[in-house]
Design brief:
The protein is an all-alpha fold. The chain has a single domain, classed as Multidrug-efflux Transporter Regulator, Chain: A, Domain 2. Helix content is about 60%, strand content about 5%. The chain is built from five helices and two strands. Strand 1 and strand 2 form a beta hairpin. The N terminus is likely disordered.
Length: about 140
């Protein structure tokens, strides 16, 4: 999928910058993700994602004309929620369903905080490594 980004800047661009702007591959801008992309993101099988669709009514990707699943950003967030409850926290499927029913927003907020903290930790580790290489 091709995207176009308009940037207002006073700096002149070169040819490479123009190409990079026209061919924006930012995953956050995608409307839909394939089941393979979602499976790869979480390190699970496509079969497991199909199973979770049956077990968790909040995961409901659209299906195209040929039955190909198209996961929206919201669907991916729901998969992330289930993944964290089942794979990270070790809850059973019934336990994950109960947690989503009773504390869905709270659990989502906790997962968001954990993800942000993990990102910050990774950035700090990269910065530390860079600083150590300068010494």
């Amino acid at each position: 999928m091709y995207g176009c980004v308009v940037m207002l800047t006073m700096q002149p661009y070169n040819h490479t910058t123009m190409i990079a702007m026209a061919l924006n591959t930012n995953k956050e801008m995608k409307m839909y993700y394939s089941i393979g992309e979602v499976a790869q993101r979480f390190g699970v099988s496509e079969t497991l994602l199909r199973y979770w669709e049956k077990e968790f009514p909040n995961i409901k990707p659209e299906k195209g004309g040929r039955g190909i699943r198209q996961y929206s950003k919201e669907d991916v967030e729901q998969v992330e929620l289930v993944y964290n409850l089942v794979k990270v926290r070790g809850l059973t499927l019934q336990g994950a369903r109960d947690a989503i029913k009773s504390q869905g927003a709270k659990v989502k907020t906790q997962i968001d905080v954990i993800n942000r903290l993990t990102h910050v930790r990774n950035e700090l580790q990269a910065l530390s490594k860079e600083l150590n290489s300068l010494v």
